[in-house]
Amino acid sequence: MLLVDTVVENNNNKNQHIDPRMNNIGMEVEETVRELRQYFKTGKTKSVAWRKNQLQALLNLVHENEDAISKALYQDLGKHPVEAYRDEIGGVEKSAQSSLNSVEKWMAPKKSSMPLLFFPAKGELLPEPLGVVLIFSSWNFPIVLALDPIIGAISAGNVVLIKPSEQAPACSSFLANTLPRYLDSNAVKVVEGGGDVCEKLLLHKFDKIFFTGSPRVASIVMTSAARNLTPVTLELGGKCPAIFDHLSNPSDFKMAVKRIVGAKWGICSGQACIGIDYVLVEEKYSSELIELLKKFVRRFYGDNMVESKVLSRIVNKQHFQRLCNLLKDPLVAASIVHGGSVDEANLFIEPTILLDPPLDAEIMTEEIFGPFLPVITVNKIQESIEFINSKPKPLAIYAFTKDETFKRKIVSETSSGSVIFNDTLVQFLCDTLPFGGVGQSGIGRYHGKFSFDTFSHEKAVMHRYLCLEIEPRYPPWNKFKLEFIRLAYRFNYFGLALHMLGLRKQN
Ligand code: NAD
């Protein structure tokens, strides 16, 4: 469904103070949400067959449209086809295939042990879909960040309304035109548009909102969701640090730097929520680190960034300008040790390394989300923990170190969505680990089974039988009844003890 196509363009009657275009969108959104809710009520999306069909259809969509997706990603972000496959197309295929393989197992009720107090009884946990799910996705990975949550939502048996990012228009249009051709169009609908359309969407009641984007918009989404007590998952960003401990073995040092360069600039030119925002290193090793960073930058991305076609471009003029402004501060500009050149016509920015820019400059107080890499020096690498803790909790912390004590310290003394040792960004592809932030970097998590759980409610089901009555649970009360209940509760522990000794089997 393409709401923006049906928009009435002119509003000549200014006296009415009503924008008919928005009125129209509002009505279409209302109708769409109503249709989705009606369809959910038929119960069709709950069957395992429906879920598997949809996952297979999504796989077919990706297989049959690999070129079209690649082209759209190139149009929106200048992503190289290899990068497009590695970070988006391949990721969706992997995720859909593993959900297809596992969905039946995930849906199965799980037995729950019943304390002796409830004898005779049986308990189970039954995952059920939430209902109508609203998904907002971001522009930097416009395919995977739209399709991955859809995989979770349909695996869990929900119906979905998705609003792709308007800042990646080719991908948004691809999704709007293609999803209804492959998936059950009664259950998965696409709405295109910007903030105005989002506001209309948020006027409605959904059973779950899954949002990927900035903390600023997330707070608008959460405020609207609160009106209907709608649960939210917020996948946000922040400043992800990389701690670079001294690696005495030259080949370790080299591999670590290579991984930093590959991840910082080779993944959407630094426009990634889990991208490295800055590197912390001991002062005495900083020049060695910077020299090697430069070497790998030249090796991977060449001298002419436009011609080499390896780097993605900046998404649009507005973000290009935002990034250029970060370098305008004279103290920041003076800290550039590599790069800094920009190509406005093609929206390219050279991989840029800065050494100790001022810590109160915007480049160090805001999420960079672009191809600048500040290297921040500390006297002792342990101080990096304090540095990280002085900022909001990041989505990820990367640490290159072989020191096991330091690793334990990082894990126990910092808080972040994830901690990755000796690599960067690979966690996004690992479905057996949850993906999500904490604090400022997000609420909730997804990927693999975690996605299924995010879009499900685990219902507690208890079966009791109309036999064996315990009369002391009913009034009128007396002392004997109180003692009986006390004893029964204690006997419950006795039952547990028997179970632990292996004398009683768990249900
Ligand atoms: P954004 O917040 O501007 O937009 C995100 C989505 O919200 C888009 O679909 C947009 O159309 C919609 N939106 C815009 N105005 C809205 C409104 N008033 N109400 C409701 N929705 C509205 O973010 P962005 O520019 O797309 O992405 C950049 C941010 O997203 C960065 O902070 C980045 O770290 C974060 N991000 C996080 C992840 C993650 O997985 N954690 C992934 C990508 C990006």
TrEMBL record:
Gene Ontology molecular functions: aldehyde dehydrogenase (NAD+) activity
Active site per UniProt: E235, C273
Catalyzed reactions per annotation: an aldehyde + NAD(+) + H2O = a carboxylate + NADH + 2 H(+)
Family annotation (InterPro entries): Ald_DH/histidinol_DH (IPR016161), Ald_DH_C (IPR016163), Ald_DH_N (IPR016162), Aldehyde_DH_dom (IPR015590), Aldehyde_DH_NAD(P) (IPR012394)
GO BP annotation list: aldehyde metabolic process; response to abscisic acid; response to water deprivation
Record domain Aldehyde dehydrogenase: where: 27-461
Keywords: NAD, Oxidoreductase
Top-level taxonomic group: Eukaryota
Similarity remark: Belongs to the aldehyde dehydrogenase family.
PANTHER family, per the entry: ALDEHYDE DEHYDROGENASE, ALDEHYDE DEHYDROGENASE FAMILY 3 MEMBER F1
Name of the protein in question: Aldehyde dehydrogenase
Organism per entry: Pisum sativum
